[in-house]
Amino acid sequence: MSAVRLDTPVKFLKGIGERRAEALERLGIRTAQDLLWHLPRRYVDASSVTPLAKAEVGAEVACVGRVVAKGVLPTRRGLRIFHAVLRDDSGVLECVWPGQAFLDRTIAVGQTLLVSGPVRFYHGRQMAPREYIILTDAEGEADPLSAGKVLPVYPATEGLSHKVIRGLLDRHLDSLLPLAHDPLSPQLRESLGLPTLQDALLAVHRPTSAAEAELGRRRLAFDELLDLQLTLTRARELAKRQRSGVAFQVKGDLTGPLRAALPWTLTADQERALGEITADMTAPERMHRLLMGDVGTGKTVVALFAMLLAVENDFQAALMAPTELLAEQHAATLGGLLEPLGIRPQLLLGRQTAAEKKAARSAIASGAARITVGTHALVQESTSFRRLGLVVIDEQHRFGVEQRAALVGKGAAPDVLLLTATPIPRSLALTFYGDLDVSTLRQRPPGRGTIRTAVRTAAQRERVLEFVQREAEAGRQAYVVLPVIEESERADLRAATTMADMLAARWPDLSVGLVHGRLKPAERDDVMRRFRAGEMQVLVATTVIEVGIDVPNATTMVIEHPERFGLAQLHQLRGRIGRGAGSSYCVLMADETVPDRLHAFAATEDGFRIAELDLQERGMGDLIGARQSGGFEVRHARLPGDEDLLTRARELAGRIIGADPALQRPENQRLRERALSRFPRATELFRVG
Ligand code: ADP
Ligand code: MG
Q: Which among 258, 291, 301, 396 is the best mutation to test ligand 1's pocket, defined by most ligand atoms within 8 Å of the CB?
């Protein structure tokens, strides 16, 4: 066999065939390097596990025990409960999974399970695990924690348990480690107090203590932050050099009439953002600005003013959205606002017929299409613009750098306006968007419906369902949202299906739909379209409901297991209601013990405030979209927490990119080469022509 390299596809590694390679791909693992950098989600060690006998009612604990009995119990309501009794040296604990009878096929007597969740009292102590992981099979393996080890818990996916991933890493770690070359010099490492790359990888996969694993993580976090800062710094440098663009003039022959035709006045925040955009666009440098604001703060109309400014200078403008549904919605909204001006936005979608696409493309090429709205179909080779002056990208984080760059490349030197509905605190904005100018919309326009958020517990479920039913009977629509997390994806999807079946059986006169991430995008769009058209009253959904989807008639959202979501994510979900004029209701169906964080969440509607709370609580991993920037996924760094590393990374990046004479030092040379090999991706955005 030829020697394994870091870029060897995983399917060529021993113990991984085509099928496992496919499952690994779902976790983003394609090469040996990806496997080596697939870090544990967390660690379990003997000191962080509660003995079963000590799991107290009202507490939230993690326990490890062997399954000694299990089965499915029916209840009077027809809900089937899977239960399992765990035993360890201290005693036993019963675990119950309501509505998840299918676990009977997965969980077997003799297995060792890690379970975590709240303990309550119901004919004795009981845990309703939020999470379970099968640590060992029934066949005589010792409990991996019995030797006092620190156990890494890996992100898993359907068809690939955490245990299999652990096995693969165990098997390949020793042969892969020597392939990881450390780009940092010993001096630099020492000054940062960080281990070598190989030691760090060893520490995260096979720690002897939690502290050692953490130090390893910090090393990997530093590398990641350095890559990111190098990219941003380089992008900023390039932008400075290549910034000559179009200096648009405010002529007012279109922006004026739009202002006059709007049925309302812009909010102060919208005016300020528009002022900033106009200043950028009228300057001879190219604009590269991010417009950040919660769903419903009115980004679209601000973007429209920018587009009209380009159009009144005889340039074209294009808006790219991440899905066909969102593109259609934008085209409809813009179409309405543009009607009085006699401009019709041109739509370009992958699913249009060949003839429609051909007509659209010829209108775009001739310049007849002054404003074009579309999906990534806009960036295909066959699409060319006569004179593209402004590119607007909605939900920018959902596009790869290449796609954004490709659209920008359709013009000579178009201005770029990126939109995002994921507000993040300033400190993070600097980390991730250090190369962009940022405008923020914090106020919501007046006259829109309010969203009332309530926290309810399982005991009040009946009343919540009756409320949903009344709303549906009154002609309004509701979402019921369930979490899906990678680690227990299969069980979660089953829970969503079970919920949809349960509601359909309960409400024979209502139409109940189901949408989740395993559907193909076209199927998903289809369900959403039917919901929007009012063909269904209740939509059971996992977290895939589109950000920005506009169903004004959907006024209620019930969120199951809200404690499993980050606050920022809850906020994104909640943004799907409250889009009409009336009141909307978001109900969080919590466990008996409601954590304070949910009350704090219910008390505010300010996305920036919630992002700050979330950041304090769980670090930045949960701020959706914040993880992706310039094609980099930030997976290892934690903010707050790693600010020291961030500062050093920024400083170092500045020196490496700048004309610092210290650049001549060989270790910096090495970093520079490594950085340069990555730049083309992130800096394409600024490419001229
Ligand atoms: P976003 O894209 O930020 O989610 P939208 O642009 O979709 O927000 O705006 C949400 C709704 O508010 C739209 O129906 C829009 O017409 C309306 N709207 C926007 N600006 C104002 C304003 N200044 N006053 C009243 N309504 C507004
Ligand atoms: Mg929007």
A: 301
